[in-house]
Amino acid sequence: MLRLILGCMLLSSVAHAKTHESWLVVTDLWGNASYQSLELDIDGKNIAGTLDGDPIEGTRNGNTLRFNAKDNHASVYHCVATIAAASMSGTADVPDTNHADRRVTHAFRARRIADRPPGPPRTITFVPTDYSNEFSPHRAPVLTVWPGDTIRTTTIDSGGVDERGVTRALFGNPQTGPFYIAGANPGDTLVVHIKRLHLNRDYADSLDALVPRVLGPRLAADARDLGKPVRWTLDRERGIARPELPTDRLKAFEVPVHPMLGGLAVAPGFGSAPISTGDTGRFGGNMDFNEVVEGNTVYLPVFQPGALLYVGDAHALQGDGETSQYALETSMDVELIVDVVHGRSIAMPRVESKTEIMALGQSGSLDDAARAATAGIAEWLQQDYGLTLSETAQVLGSSARYVVVNLAGRSVGVAAKIDKARLAALRPTHD
Q1: Domain with CATH 3.10.28.20 in the chain
Q2: Dist. CA 150–CA 148, nearest whole Å
Q3: Could you tell me which of 396, 386, 388, 384 has the C-alpha nearest to residue 422?
Q4: What is the CATH T-level fold of the domain 349-431, as seen in this structure?
Q5: Torsion of CA 122, 123, 128, 131, to 10 degrees
Q6: Residues of the chain with CATH 2.40.160.90
Q7: Which residues make up the CATH 2.60.120.580 domain(s) of the chain?
Q8: Which element (helix H / strand E) includes 235?
């Protein structure tokens, strides 16, 4: 009898055990997909949690889920769903944004995000089988990782060619990914530590070109015959690159390689169409910044649940501005550690090295890119060091350096840099 009583008590405890589940919800808004994170705390038949940060409450009876969500405008959303294993489908009765006295119904579906594996952060090797020519929130994630995890993967070159010389994707900076970073949500900052960039083949491709933005009338006339392919030999043992078929004057010309990622991005937010992997924005993109190198850290604002990290367009070397249109384009082995700063957003992509902080501005003109870079570095000083705008202006006026990052794309890039030694006397407001 005692054993039976203990058994019943154990079954009752299991039946009412509190559990937590994370879901990615996709709502169909008149043919447009909207992505939200759903966090469910289940206690018997009662549920609580958040939908995109808004509190929810409701019940779960068997496979049927009913809950209400209330946003910060006190608008109430009524949701009913059916759960089948790791998937969910249902409808949401929501306010009509154009008519205060009306409501509309939208269908939604969801997939459950796997629980974080027990133990310390993992190192995960991902071998890509296809690639993306868009920075898109709609592409299915290739892998789910958690903050602290290390991703080991490979990229192909801007023409779609892999380390064996095989064309694997359409030209135009095809990207590996996206990687879903569990727990990352809009308003957060994604942190990407570049742990290792390793050249995995013995050549790179470029052009003998000069981009139109650097050409004056006379130079443009003289440069009409430029734009021919140039192959570079990569001596990986020596860490040197040289033209494969040099002219007499370039026979002794060689340069040290400095592997970098031209492409690093998260998916853009709702309302933005998928963006070409040749373009840039607040989300990162085809930044072609030669400081995105091994040992440095890149910070990107998060616009979608899971951030959706894309990586690609590896360069063996690139001068400031990528003035030859193509840098030394190649394939690469990549190792990244991902992390998330919750509840803290940044206006522009940031890069941090051991010695510098750098904010990247990207726009259609150098003037606008410089303005964006200035706004980004000013925000960094104000957020992390607690400086007033007056104090920020004094630091920038005495210590900022500006670098032209990219002149080859539809957008141009400018980076504002400050040496950390100049900031050593200032106390960061947080680590």
Answers
A1: 349-431
A2: 7
A3: 396
A4: Endonuclease I-creI (3.10.28)
A5: 70
A6: 17-113
A7: 117-345
A8: strand 229-235
Task: Indicate the burial class of 17 (C-beta count within 10 angstroms; 0-12, 13-18, 19 or more).
Answer: exposed
253 three-class SS: coil
Answer whether 40's CB lies under 8 Å from 23's CB. yes
* pLDDT single digits (tens) 348-396: 999 999 999 999 999 999 999 999 999 999 999 999 999 999 999 999 9
Tens digits of residue pLDDT in 202-241: 999 999 999 999 999 999 999 999 999 999 999 999 999 9
Locate 427 and state its tokens.
Answer: 């106390």
CATH class for the region spanning 117-345: mainly beta
> The whole model's pTM is what?
0.93
Q: For residue 283, which of 273, 296, 291 has the smallest C-alpha distance? A: 273
State yes or no: pLDDT of 431 exceeds 60: no
Give the Cβ contact number of residue 321 at 10 Å.
21
For residue 13, the model assigns a pLDDT of 41
Nearest to 81 by CA among 30, 43, 47, 44: 47
Structure-block tokens of residue 4? 């039976």
Residue 178: cis peptide before it, omega within 30 degrees of 0: yes
Q: What topology is assigned to 17-113 in CATH?
A: Porin (2.40.160)
Beta sheet of 175-181, edge-to-edge order: 143-145, 175-181, 309-315, 260-266, 284-285, 280-281
Two structure tokens written together for 105: 């119904």
Query: Maximum Cα–Cα distance for the chain, whole Å?
Result: 100
State the average pLDDT for the chain: 94
Contact by Cβ (8 Å): 311, 152: no
Of 146, 144, 155, 134, nearest to 315 by C-alpha is 155
